[in-house]
Design a protein that fits this description.
Layout (H helix, E strand, L loop, with lengths): L2 H15 L10 H11 L5 E5 L15 E6 L2 H13 L4 E6 L12 E7 L8 H11 E12 L7 H16 L9 H6 L4 E8 L11 E7 L3
Helix pairs in contact: 1-3
The structure holds S-adenosylmethionine.
Length: 215
């Protein structure tokens, strides 16, 4: 992708899309999904596709964060947000989820939020997540997925998907990410559905939950 589009996406994401500043618990998605899920993070945490750092206010105290992000223009905002939130950002690393630059068994928690919609190969990323998690470690995720086949939303998602990918830095509206997580070989997979109250509901429904690597 052209540099100017990477830069424009990072600017728009930081200034228009991701909620910066203090957590907004009046927002149902924050209250019911994002905050409770991130509260489960423990120990050494890897966030893949950390963007501009929208998740930073929601991590519990005591976690040690490694933030991976492929877009260097996002990383500029990410750096500033680590300081702003006084988060323990041990490392900010430029890289992709398909080839994690970390040894096996490095992390207690791996997180993705709105990332598996954009990666080139979901199964490669999920295999990498399993590789870098320690035994008993947990993968936490929040992802938007394809609507039920046969619905108006499903048809709209397929029609708009090519344009959406261009505008949204490779984001797909039509992926069955829940199925990909179930097929990836984790144990204790818990996947819950969530409908974000937005109109039009293109980047909806969502799935969120956790999956564990065996002890
Ligand atoms: C919609 S943004 C979400 C950012 C952040 N996770 C959040 O929830 O605010 C998608 C992010 O995934 C990143 N991304 C895209 N492809 C990726 C890949 N192959 N590996 C890791 N991150 C990727 C993008 O650069 C972008 O920061």
């Amino acid at each position: 992708m052209a540099k100017w589009r990477k830069r424009a996406f990072a600017w728009c994401y930081h200034h228009l899309l991701s909620r910066q500043g203090e957590p907004d618990f009046s927002d149902p998605f924050t209250r019911e999904v994002r905050a409770p899920l991130l509260a489960q993070a423990r120990g050494d945490v890897l966030e893949i596709g950390a963007g501009t750092g929208g998740n930073l206010p929601f991590y519990p105290p005591g976690v040690r964060l490694t933030l991976l992000e492929p877009n260097p223009y996002m990383i500029r905002y990410l750096d500033g947000n680590c300081t702003a939130h006084a988060a323990d950002c041990a490392a900010i690393v430029e890289g992709i989820g398909e080839r994690l630059p970390f040894p096996a068994n490095s992390f207690d928690t791996v997180l993705t939020t709105h990332v598996l919609c954009s990666v080139r190969d979901q199964s490669e990323v999920l295999a990498e997540v399993r590789r870098v998690l320690r035994p008993g470690g947990r993968f936490l995720f929040i992802e938007h997925v394809a609507a039920q086949p046969g619905t108006l939303n499903h048809r709209a998602q397929h029609a708009i998907n090519p344009v959406w990918q261009w505008v949204g830095d490779g984001c797909h509206l039509t992926r069955d990410t829940g199925a990909a997580i179930r097929a990836a070989g984790f144990e204790h997979v818990e996947i819950r559905p969530y409908n974000v109250r937005v109109w039009p509901p293109l980047a909806s429904p969502h799935v969120f939950g956790s999956a564990m690597v065996g002890q």
